[in-house]
Amino acid sequence: MKKISIILSITIFSIAFAESSYELDWLPFGKARELSKKTDKPLVVYIERNGCGWCRKFWNNTLTDDEIEKQLDSFFVVTKINLSSMNKVEVDGETYTERQLGSMFAVRGVPATIFVTPQDTVLAKLPGYMPPEQFKVVIKYFGEGWYENMSYQEFMESEKKLKQKD
Fold first, then answer.
1. Torsions phi, psi of 135, nearest 5?
2. Which pLDDT does position 116 carry in this prediction?
3. Of 32, 25, 22, which Cα lies nearest the Cα of 115?
4. Whether this model's pTM surpasses 0.85
5. DSSP string of 102-152, one letter each residue
6. Buried b (16+ CB within 10 A) or exposed e, 70-90
7. What was the pLDDT predicted at 3?
8. Mean pLDDT for each 10-residue chunk of the chain (166 residues)?
9. Peptide bond before 131: cis, by omega within 30 degrees of 0?
10. In order of start, what are the domains of the chain with their CATH numbers?
């Protein structure tokens, strides 16, 4: 009987874990950029470096949150660049290292999150760690296109008013 309850517990835990785990497809930069243009979805470029504690925290606490992954998948094409990497990436027939791509974005600190239109316009370059609740608001602002009609500050004020009504 004990053996059956242990097996049942493991099975229930496995099912619950499998259902709550969402895995986002982080593409190499060149492929992500092509898909962004093809689907007309903005690009989110996450930039990190090996050994960066804040990068690891942002990845583990924020970017791999199931709800955030679903929001990112709905609104964006996602890619990540490791400034410590010499991996080659092809962009428009040219080959670059991930480190060179980071330089092209003029990234001075990590982690950094960059929002880019399918037409290659940088909408925002956000430095540093963001907790999940803060990043969800940023995703909504750019993902739903609010940036086209209002400043981020105006958007935040409207979000506060909405929450007060609830």
1. -70, -35
2. 97
3. 32
4. no
5. HHHTT--SSSEEEEE-TTS-EEEEEES---HHHHHHHHHHHHTTGGGTS-H
6. ebbeebbbbbbbbbebeeebe
7. 54
8. 48 44 85 96 97 96 95 96 93 92 92 96 96 96 94 90 77
9. no
10. 23-165 (3.40.30.10)
Helix, strand or coil for residue 95? strand
Hey, is 71 helix, strand or coil? Answer: helix
Beta strand ranges found along 23-87 (DSSP E): 43-48, 77-82
The residue whose two tokens read 């974005």 is 105
Is the Cα dihedral 68, 73, 74, 77 positive or negative? positive
CA distance 166 to 163: 5
**pLDDT for 142:** 96
Question: How distant is the alpha carbon of residue 1 from its chain centre?
Answer: 46
Q: In the prediction, which pLDDT does 132 show? A: 96
CA 160, 163, 164, 166: dihedral to nearest 10 degrees? 170
Query: Which pLDDT score, from 0 to 100, does residue 163 have?
Result: 79
Asked whether the beta carbons of 78 and 32 are under 8 A apart, the reply is yes
Secondary structure of residue 80 in the 3-state scheme: strand
64, HSE (Cβ side, Cα atoms, 13 Å) = 9
